[in-house]
Specification:
The structure holds two protein chains of two kinds. Chain A is an alpha+beta fold. Helix content of chain A is 32%, strand content 14%. Chain A has two domains: 106 residues, Ubiquitin-like (UB roll); 136 residues, Orthogonal Bundle (Fumarate Reductase Iron-sulfur Protein, Chain B, domain 2), CATH 1.10.1060. In chain A, strand 6 and strand 7 form a beta hairpin. Chain B is an all-alpha fold. The chains are: A alpha+beta, B mainly alpha. The structure holds FE2/S2 (inorganic) cluster (FES).
Chain lengths: 250, 258
């Protein structure tokens, strides 16, 4: 296929979590509709660099390939994006791929997002319905609140909002927009509401909602268009009311 | 089995007792609210007072006199100006230092404002330190000699570099306050909706324009007014006058005899 076009992809590689990193350049034939994951699969089939050197396939996370599992976020041309929905034709070339910078690298483009999941646990981002007996049907949720909550239910925990957040680092321990969005979701749910005080308490601790600097990058980058700044604002109000009213009722 | 339970109970109780309560929420929110009151409120008062410079030297000095005559002025200054500004400034540096600005990677408006809020904070802090030292503590004491107020500012900004610093400091302070007000409304949950936030942002932009033009006009009135005697000269003139008065009718009579 000498006549077909190729694209150049430069990838930041790192074999071990603490090891050194280096860049490798690959050339893959351009196919219509090709996305980054497709290109990485082609590299895996034939792991040879543009200089003709044999190497090992590139590690990355991906699962659904339709932007719903949230595992494939990576920094593409300097900006975080879901690799499975990043179409090669729409990107400036040569394409630069790097792992997300706010999470520890496992290998190559694969990162460890445990912190996000730990923070979801910290705020109890779920509705406890398990018990030893049938609790019966929960309270009804208004159509209006269903529609408002739906936006927040679309979160795929990809970590893009955390990657772009200037406040998300080891120093602040900030939980980040994704987690605050989930607090918004579960606190408005008629059953989830019952645990709202616990979630709000968690947000008063280290890395809580006060670490937000309202740079609003989260809402700009979110691949699911979740109104994250609205969630932060609403939860901010809930936390304030919780603190002030709690103080007055003591 | 029992041992296990005891161990678990011990572990959970010791975990609770060793965990020192985290007060960062309180201090961060205090920083936020202190920017509105009293620091922001003082900025408004200060710009209002300064605008009397537009009405001339006398009007300005009289307004300053009114402030110096407030009861317990020193306590008011310390409690409502020095401590809140120092706290807001120092905690603000801490906030700035902990953030990782990334506006070069993600140059969105909100991100620009995030960075600008930090830069204007730092500039304002440097400006306030210089301004307070020079106007409040250095030179002729202003609280005891309200009548040097206009002259003190005028001679200070007669130096072009200082004049420029005043303009930059003023604009920084007004920006930082106006955008800070918006951030306050958003973070405390007063304006969560997208449309409401947008409208409020326009209102804050208007506030910035009003405040900074009021400040610039006052500054211009001071720099373009006929040059006053230096504060030291004013002080000397004043003490000569009071000496003449204290010498009584005799002295007055002598003078009239000439
Ligand atoms: S692979 Fe699931 S979101 Fe990209």
């Amino acid at each position: 296929m000498a006549d077909s076009k190729t694209v150049e992809i430069r990838i930041k590689r790192q074999l071990t979590p603490d090891g050194p990193s280096r860049r490798e350049t690959f050339r893959v034939p351009l196919r219509p509709g090709l996305n980054i994951i497709g290109a990485l699969m082609m590299i895996a089939e034939n792991p040879v660099t543009a200089e003709g050197r044999q190497t090992v396939p590139v590690s990355y996370d991906a699962n659904c390939l339709e932007e719903v599992c949230g595992s494939c976020a990576m920094v593409i041309n300097g900006k975080v994006h879901m690799a499975c929905s990043a179409l090669i034709e729409r990107l400036d070339q040569p394409i630069r791929l790097e792992p997300m910078s706010r999470f520890p690298v496992v290998r190559d483009l694969q990162v460890d997002r445990s912190r996000l999941f730990r923070d979801l646990q910290r705020v109890k981002a779920w509705i406890p319905i398990d018990g030893t007996y049938d609790l019966g049907p929960g309270p009804r949720m208004s159509q209006r609140e269903q529609e408002a909550a739906y936006h927040f239910a679309r979160c795929i925990s990809c970590g893009s909002c955390l990657e772009v957040c200037p406040q998300y680092n080891d120093q602040t321990q900030f939980v980040g927009a994704a987690v605050l969005g989930q607090v918004r979701l579960f606190n408005s749910h008629p059953t989830g509401q019952m645990n709202a005080p616990e979630r709000l308490e968690a947000l008063l601790g280290p890395g809580g909602i006060h670490e937000c600097g309202y740079a609003q990058n989260c809402v700009e980058i979110c691949p699911k268009d979740i109104p994250l700044t609205q969630a932060i604002s609403e939860v901010g109000g809930q936390v304030m009311r919780h603190v002030l009213l709690g103080f007055l009722r003591k | 089995m029992k041992l296990n339970e005891a161990r678990l109970a011990f572990m959970s109780s010791s975990a609770e007792s060793t965990a020192s309560p985290d007060r960062s929420f309180f201090w961060r929110r205090l920083h936020s609210v202190s920017g509105v009151f009293p620091v922001g409120a003082f900025l408004l008062e200060h710009l209002y007072t300064n605008s009397y410079a537009i009405n001339g030297v006398e009007a300005y000095n009289e307004k300053v006199r009114g402030l110096t005559e407030l009861p317990m002025v020193l306590i008011l200054e310390i409690a409502f100006i020095y401590i809140p500004i120092a706290y807001h400034a120092l905690y603000g540096v801490w906030v700035w230092w902990r953030g990782d600005g990334n506006v070069t990677h993600y140059p969105w408006t909100g991100n620009w404002m995030y960075s600008l809020q930090r830069w204007t904070g730092l500039v304002t802090m440097a400006y306030i330190a210089f301004h307070v030292w020079e106007q409040r503590f250095a030179g002729v004491h202003i609280i005891e000699n309200y009548f040097v107020a206009f002259s003190k500012v005028q001679h200070s900004i007669a130096r072009p570099a200082v004049h420029a610093f005043y303009v930059v400091g003023l604009l920084s302070a007004c920006f930082h306050f106006a955008y800070g007000l918006w951030l306050f409304a958003c973070k405390w949950g007063f304006a969560p909706g997208r449309a409401a936030q947008k409208k409020l942002l326009w209102a804050c932009a208007a506030l910035f324009l009003v405040l900074s033009s009021a400040g610039l006009m006052s500054l211009r009135s001071i720099s373009t007014a006929p040059l006053q005697p230096r504060p030291e000269e004013l002080l000397k003139m004043r003490s000569q006058k009071s000496v003449a008065r204290s010498q009584g009718p005799e002295a007055a009579g002598k003078r009239s005899a000439f």
